[in-house]
Write a structure and sequence with these properties.
mainly alpha; 9 strands; elongated; binds iron/sulfur cluster; DNA replication
């Protein structure tokens, strides 16, 4: 931050960047960036103009429909129909995006684990309080349309919208979690703020006409009595027509799906206190449309035009892992999970997650692995503490069952050394995260990626059966995987095979391994039972003995790894 320049004018302003003013160690940081992402906004000209006018309003105050006077010129709940326009550094852009990802990931984790509504509320309060207060603004001196402060919430939303618009799976994930966040924030608004929000966004839901209410009262009453206590239902009915809104049924799909609303002639008659569903429905529809538009335009323009600068940052965001880095030398030893070559077969059997086990079994069976699979397994094994020498011996022993040693030296040894940072740019590469594995799409004859995503139902059932998991649990895990909850399915496998859960959820194959070693009682030397010496316990924990061992400090979120 600090270097500012005006963006060059473009006739079709998409995501416009000023030229880089400095290059910090080759990385795309510290570049001032002008986010004029109008092409990613959705909503008619009326919406855009209205939002712009509201932003440009005098800083004094505005009157809400409820008659209360509130300051108008501070960040507030947004429908994200208008994109922010200001110069910010690419560094800030990325940092804000990652903060929002932390919140969305926490929401996703909470939902996947089936947290109750009250627990989800608490979780979202904590996460937004830590990373994404709605009142947070971009620090520094920059100008926005109308001179309003630039909201961190909006910048981070549009940054992630770009990152998550690119595939169906990413769009689904983003939409789900953004809607949860929006719902949480809307629920927290007081009545005046809600009224102002509806007014600002033209959500003029029609109050039910008295004659319509009289005509449909019986049907409405039946639905209400079916979903709530008699007294509550009567209270709503006694409010008469003014207690209901007629809205297009598709705007309250969740109520319709749950049969929690009366419907007639394509309209749902929604009690006033269920307004949240309406607003969230409108938000979902708007965001879903925006994502589709963004996706098309990303492919058509931005990915190509910004191939050198923005595209790599955006693409990396959706794959970014926010937990511990498992690739540092000596790190495995500190975590107590070092394995040696001779330990590999037994470790693979008891402690490898399915992704690593699948690759390990494939190389043992076929004495070969294609590039992506080799890379995934090489980095994973580095992360569990296998030394370069032992790794080289492992790959050579397996591959040389099929090819001559010279061919191995010529074609494969380089890649092993490269993974350990001993060749090429000498970067100490980190093992793949779950996100990275999940986002890969192996072709025929390839074994990399996450099996919970890549395996068909039959293969996954067989693989889980091979881990001696009870058939009913296998069925549950397969169902989770079919519902695209791959990491949750993996966590269920851990629970079924180890008798305890991974508290923070499965985020990384090497984290799975570490948790497994802890659960099985392996200490820092990699020898079973070492931990017993430390704790004075008599026998190691075996799979099924949940909670018998005092937990080690859990893996704490660490600075973001690349
Ligand atoms: Fe591996 Fe993660 Fe998939 Fe589990 S969820 S199999 S650890 S990639």
């Amino acid at each position: 931050p600090g270097t500012r320049a005006r963006a060059p004018t473009r006739t079709r302003a998409d995501v416009v960047f000023v030229p880089p003013s400095e290059s910090a160690s080759g990385r795309l940081t510290r570049l001032p960036v002008r986010i004029v992402v109008a092409m990613f906004a959705i909503g008619g000209k009326k919406d855009q103009a209205k939002a712009a006018a509201l932003r440009a309003a005098p800083k004094s105050a505005s009157k809400t429909s409820g008659g209360s006077v509130r300051p108008s010129n501070h960040p507030k709940l947004s429908m994200y129909t208008e994109t922010p326009s200001a110069d910010i550094s690419l560094e800030t852009f990325e940092a804000f995006a990652l903060d929002r990802m932390r919140v969305l990931k926490a929401i996703d984790d909470g939902l996947s684990r089936g947290k109750k509504p009250a627990e989800m509320e608490q979780l979202m309060n904590e996460e937004t309080g830590k990373h994404l207060k709605i009142t947070d603004v971009v620090p520094g001196d920059f100008s926005t349309l109308g001179g309003a402060p630039l909201s961190k919430d909006e910048v981070s939303h549009f940054a992630l919208r770009l990152a998550y618009c690119r595939t169906e799976e990413l769009r689904r994930w983003f939409l789900l979690n953004e809607c949860q966040l929006f719902k949480h924030r809307f629920n927290k608004l007081d009545a005046y703020a809600k009224a102002a929000f509806l007014e600002e966004h033209d959500m003029e839901y029609k109050p039910l006409k008295p004659e319509t209410f009289a005509e449909k009262r019986k049907g409405i009453s039946e639905v209400l009595h079916g979903i709530m206590k008699r007294d509550d239902a009567e209270k709503i009915l006694n409010a008469g027509a003014s207690g209901f809104y007629a809205v297009p049924f598709e705007e309250v799909a969740d109520l319709v799906r749950g049969r929690r609303v009366f419907m007639a002639d394509g309209e749902a008659y929604v009690p006033r206190d269920q307004l949240t569903s309406l607003v969230v429905g409108a938000f979902r529809a708007s965001l879903s449309k925006s994502l589709a538009v963004a996706s098309r335009r990303w492919a058509q323009h931005v990915a190509g035009e910004e191939r050198e600068r923005l595209a790599p940052v955006i693409v990396s965001l959706s794959k970014r892992y926010l937990g511990r880095d498992f690739g540092k030398p000596g790190d495995a030893g500190e975590r107590g999970s070092v394995v040696t070559l001779k330990d590999l077969p037994s470790a693979a059997k008891t402690s490898f997650p399915l992704c690593a086990k699948n690759l390990f079994d494939a190389v043992k069976r076929e004495h070969h692995l294609r590039h992506e699979g080799r890379r995934q397994l090489q980095l994973y094994m580095k992360g569990i503490g296998l030394s370069l020498e032992e790794a080289m011996l492992f790959w050579k022993t397996e591959f040389c069952k099929k090819i001559p040693a010279e061919k191995f030296e010529k074609e494969y040894a380089y890649a092993v050394r490269h993974a350990y940072g001993k060749e090429g740019k000498r970067v100490d590469y980190t093992p793949h995260t779950c996100m990275k594995c999940i986002s890969s799409n192996p072709g025929a004859g390839e074994h990399h990626g996450c099996p919970y995503k890549t395996f068909g139902e039959e293969s996954l059932t067989a693989a889980l059966g091979g881990l001696s998991i009870a058939p009913h649990k296998v069925r549950d895990i397969v169902q989770k995987a079919k519902a695209h909850h791959y990491q949750l399915a993996c966590g269920m496998t851990f629970e079924a095979t180890h008798g305890k859960t991974i508290e923070e959820g499965v985020q990384h194959p090497n984290q799975y391994f570490d948790e497994s070693r802890k659960a099985l009682g392996f200490g820092a030397s990699g020898k079973e039972g070492d931990e017993n010496k430390e704790t004075g316990s008599a026998s190691p924990v075996t799979p099924g003995a949940a909670g018998a061992r005092p937990a080690r400090p859990s893996i704490q979120p660490a600075p973001v790894s690349a």
